[in-house]
């Protein structure tokens, strides 16, 4: 059912029809009829903010990060298999299926060599996007060669020719360098370039640096932070936000919590 809703949004169809056992209103979005099992209600409630995106509101960006109780996404050696439990992996794949594109940074692509597909749930693979300003990701990485989904590489304009020689012009998005210089991309320009290609509902999957940059620049509408009951100690840091000198200045988004097996998912509304 979740996938049916996402597919209707992508195709510009009305939000519901007789085959979907859901209520819809322009004011409140989707609602389940009475009598559904508590687990189904909880799952629907978790994804409802994403499912309700239609029309102009479909330009929406959600991030996800899994980390330990002490704020690490991996050990100091880079071992991240697995911080979160199997329920968190299913959640990750479900987010991929519900979004138009999944975005990762170069470090994640290099360390994990991910596929970024929907192997654990029904649904289409999203377009895969790698943010790689300086072409650090090997040309033989799985997501460039496996043919399982469209894949884009976003790099600095200075590396356009080299990137296109590797992957073809249709798979390269070359953007000007960030005004601050260095290896940083201008993330608002990244979002604009992807949406110009029809990729409107975006999933920022990782890693910690990439998700944190989107949060720090105010570019995420929603963040799912999955916390596992494990202590890693001096590992790779997870979510990092701008430092607050006073507690009154600290970011306090509205949150909801959901159980994912032994993990806890914190659903943060960063646009409230």
Give your account of this protein's structure.
The strands form three sheets. A nine-stranded mixed sheet has the order 8-7-6-5-9-3-10-13-12, sandwiched between helices. A two-stranded antiparallel sheet has the order 1-2. The chain is an alpha/beta fold. The protein is 28% helix and 24% strand. It starts with a helix and ends with a strand. β7 (151-156), α6 (160-167) and β8 form a beta-alpha-beta unit. The model has no long low-confidence stretch (mean pLDDT 93). It is globular, with a radius of gyration of 19 Å. The chain has helices at residues 2-11, 38-51, 86-98, 106-112, 142-145, 160-167, 187-196, 208-216; strands spanning 23-25, 29-31, 60-68, 72-74, 101-105, 127-131, 151-156, 172-175, 201-206, 222-228, 236-237, 255-260, 263-269. It contains eight helices and 13 strands. The protein has two domains: 1-55, no CATH class; 59-240 and 250-269, Dihydrofolate Reductase, subunit A.
Can you tell me the overall shape? globular
The poorly predicted ranges are none
- Give the helices and strands as they follow along the chain: HEEHEEHEHEHEHEHEHEEEE
What's the name of the CATH homologous superfamily of the largest domain? Answer: Dihydrofolate Reductase, subunit A
Q: In total, how many domains does the architecture comprise?
A: 2
The protein's oligomeric status is single chain
């Amino acid at each position: 059912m979740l996938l049916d809703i996402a597919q209707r949004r992508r195709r510009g169809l009305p939000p519901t029809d007789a085959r979907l056992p859901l209520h819809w209103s322009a004011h409140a979005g989707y609602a389940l009829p009475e009598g559904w099992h508590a687990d189904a209600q909880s799952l629907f409630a978790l994804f409802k903010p994403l499912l309700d995106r239609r029309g102009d509101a479909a330009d929406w960006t959600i991030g996800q990060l899994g980390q330990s109780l002490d704020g690490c996404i991996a050990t100091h050696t880079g071992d991240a298999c697995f911080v979160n439990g199997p329920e968190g992996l299913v959640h990750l794949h479900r987010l991929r299926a519900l979004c138009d594109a999944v975005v990762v940074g170069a470090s994640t692509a290099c360390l994990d060599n991910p596929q970024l597909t929907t192997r654990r749930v029904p649904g289409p693979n999203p377009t895969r996007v790698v943010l790689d300003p300086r072409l650090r990701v090997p040309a033989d990485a799985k997501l460039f060669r496996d043919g399982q989904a469209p894949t884009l590489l976003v790099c600095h304009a200075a590396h356009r020719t080299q990137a296109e020689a590797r992957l073809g012009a249709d798979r390269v998005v070359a953007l000007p360098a960030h005004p601050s210089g260095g290896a940083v991309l201008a993330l608002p320009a990244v979002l604009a370039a992807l949406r110009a290609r029809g990729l409107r509902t975006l999933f920022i999957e990782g890693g910690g640096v990439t998700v944190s940059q989107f949060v720090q620049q105010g570019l995420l509408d929603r963040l799912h932070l999955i916390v596992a009951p494990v202590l890693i100690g001096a590992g790779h840091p997870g979510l990092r936000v701008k430092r607050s000198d006073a507690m009154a200045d600290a970011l306090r988004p509205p949150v909801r919590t959901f159980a994912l097996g032994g993990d806890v998912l914190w659903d943060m509304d960063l646009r409230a």
